[in-house]
What we know:
This protein is of the alpha+beta class.
Amino acid sequence: MQGDKTGDQPLSDFVKQYIKEKYQKPGEVFLGVVHRLDRPVCGLVVFARTSKALTRLNKMFAEGQVHKTYWAIVEMRNEKLEMRNDSNAQAQAHSAFRIPHSSFKELTHWLTRNEQQNKSYAYDHEVRGAKKAMLRYRELARGDRYSLLEVQLMTGRHHQIRCQLSAIGCPIRGDLKYGARRSNPDGSISLLARRVEFEHPVSHEKICIDAPLPDDPLWQKLSHQVS
């Protein structure tokens, strides 16, 4: 997202160059980093082009006025994800099928962060130094080994979605750090910042943007079943 000790070129540099060329701006280009995604995560990111927008967006994020929706492909290792009660389920076991519209379920954990490992750990009770983490999720589609979830964050903690889903036995596909069986070929994890909705901080226009799906057969197969 922005420069760090690795020296890798960050996304912010590419965006600055884009703005410089598109608007023919001389000299340095201002760009405010409003929020971040983990390196292996794909999808939508919001940047601020002016200091005024940055201040207002920071306040909007802090007050929960920016709504982000994530999609995740997870491994199914237990029954904490409600199984579909369908007499045809066995016959459909080797193809993705749509899950009837279901209400969101909430997950609550207390997370601690290990800085050296760059990893969070989830507890089902409050422990010293932990921060409360809450999210909502529902199942959208299911294949023979994986399920597609829609996730909405209620708090913003380090690796929150990755850690909490792993804690209920549903690690994100490709996420070796949180218990996935194998990595994805490109080193990504199957977590997508799918949608962002907010009011433009200056024009007050309603903004709602959907990210394209990754060019991956499993993403395409599962998402095709979503109504």
